[in-house]
Amino acid sequence: MLGNLAIAAAGGQYSTLIILVVFLALMYFLMLRPQQKQQKKHRDMMSQLKKGDHVITIGRLHGVIDEINEADKTVTLDCDGIYLVFDLRAIAQVTTQAPQAVTAPAAEEAAQDAKPEEAAATDEPAAQDADETPKSDDQATDETK
């Protein structure tokens, strides 16, 4: 009788060990491996930084790289004429497009110059819709008097 209990206990220990190994493998593939891939991608991006790149910092500040100091591990950003020095680790991402604040007014002017008739046509229906709002019974009787 005691021999059967010892065998059952040994089988239970193996199942616990198997469950633990499976859990650790799942944790590696679902959590650790994607994080390592993301870190490698970020390291590759940081190694390819060069002067003139448009970047965004971890504080969401947009700027253009003016200087990279590899010895101090710092980068100097030009933010609309203001030069700021950041640690290289503060760079969150590199963007290839110019900041939106610079390009947005030019795009709006081009759109207005290209189609002034359509802009005027869209304003008229909005004015007509405002005049056609439903009126309450009190307002309707006041207008008839």
From TrEMBL:
It comes from the Bacteria. Residues 99-145 are annotated as: Disordered. The keyword Transmembrane applies. Its main location: membrane. The chain crosses the membrane at residues 12-32. It is a single-pass membrane protein. Residues 99-109 have a biased composition (Low complexity). GO terms for cellular component: plasma membrane. Residues 132-145 have a biased composition (Basic and acidic residues). GO terms for biological process: protein transport. Keywords: Cell membrane, Membrane, Protein transport, Translocation, Transmembrane, Transmembrane helix, Transport. It is found in: Cell membrane. Belongs to the YajC family. This is Preprotein translocase subunit YajC. The lineage of its organism: Bacteria, Bacillati, Bacillota, Bacilli, Lactobacillales. The gene is yajC.
